[in-house]
């Protein structure tokens, strides 16, 4: 059998493109042979910067489920496009709170990464439940 050359990130990207049912079946099969690999793939399917592909309504729904302080911290090392997307689509009071944390005193990188992981755990759960959709293909419209 040929060895897969793309690594976990490439495999996770392919998995993310599958239907929910197909993705679950593949992850379940992998999990039986290598639970750590299945978990690594599940975590790698979506990155924090992928949140820029959420619709404004989905972003607001996500913000209701996460700590505003976590979002402020997590955005410190986010792509500029994601920062802009979050701040542009966040209600004013919440945006002010996020900006205060974002512009506040320096934080340990580990604290920022932990905040991102807490948010991504919620994101993965919502994606698995069908409550969020990360649509990287902007030519495809969500209805």
From TrEMBL:
Any single GO BP term: bacterial-type flagellum-dependent cell motility
GO terms assigned for molecular function: cytoskeletal motor activity
GO-annotated cellular components: bacterial-type flagellum
InterPro entries per UniProt: Flg_Motor_Flig, Flg_Motor_Flig_C, FliG_a-hlx
Domain of life: Bacteria
Domain Flagellar motor switch protein FliG C-terminal: residue ranges: 28-134
Pfam families, A to Z: FliG_C (PF01706)
Protein name from the UniProt record: Flagellar motor switch protein FliG C-terminal domain-containing protein
Annotated organism of origin: Bacteriovorax stolpii (Bdellovibrio stolpii)
Upper taxonomic lineage: Bacteria, Pseudomonadati, Bdellovibrionota, Bacteriovoracia, Bacteriovoracales
């Amino acid at each position: 059998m040929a060895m897969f050359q793309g690594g976990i990130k490439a495999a996770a990207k392919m998995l993310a493109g599958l239907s929910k049912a197909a993705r679950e079946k593949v992850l379940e099969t992998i999990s039986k042979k290598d639970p750590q690999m299945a978990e690594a793939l599940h975590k790698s399917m979506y990155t924090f910067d992928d949140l820029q592909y959420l619709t404004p309504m989905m972003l607001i729904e996500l913000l209701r489920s996460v700590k505003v302080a976590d979002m402020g911290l997590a955005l410190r090392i986010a792509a500029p496009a994601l920062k802009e997307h979050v701040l542009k689509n966040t209600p004013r009071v919440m945006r002010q709170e996020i900006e205060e944390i974002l512009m506040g005193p320096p934080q340990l990188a580990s604290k920022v990464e932990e905040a991102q992981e807490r948010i991504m755990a919620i994101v993965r759960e919502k994606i698995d439940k069908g409550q969020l959709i990360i649509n990287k293909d902007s030519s495809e419209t969500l209805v």
